[in-house]
Amino acid sequence: MGWFLLLNLTTACIAYLFLYPRRNLIGFHLGMNIAMAAGGGLALGTGVILINLFPLHFIEVIISTALLGMVAGGLFGALFDYQSVLTGYINGLMMGIMSPMVGAAASEGPMFILFIELFILSCYVLLLTSAYRS
């Protein structure tokens, strides 16, 4: 399951590098959606994975996941405008706090984590194709 975490971080970095040269061509509505999906998606995937890897370390997992979500949402939002920074930051914070709870409640095995990963990767693909078309 640890390699899912590496996959999430790699996908986020690739998406950021793809969006950086196109940041001036993307409108603020799409930019806000990108910031929310990137920060929230990375926090969701990381929180579910980390709480399954370290089930008795709730405080550490929540803090690290919330910080990662806030940083990712803020960085993706900074590509566009200040409102997107705030939206990505807050969405990353909220998903970072909530995702370890979801992961702890759904600790039935790797099927849930696989579903979450497919959902997050499909969101990244959808956002990148939207950004490419704009």
TrEMBL record:
Transmembrane portions of the chain: 6-22, 34-55, 61-79, 86-106, 112-132
Keywords: Membrane, Transmembrane, Transmembrane helix
Transmembrane is among the record's keywords: yes
Protein known as: Uncharacterized protein
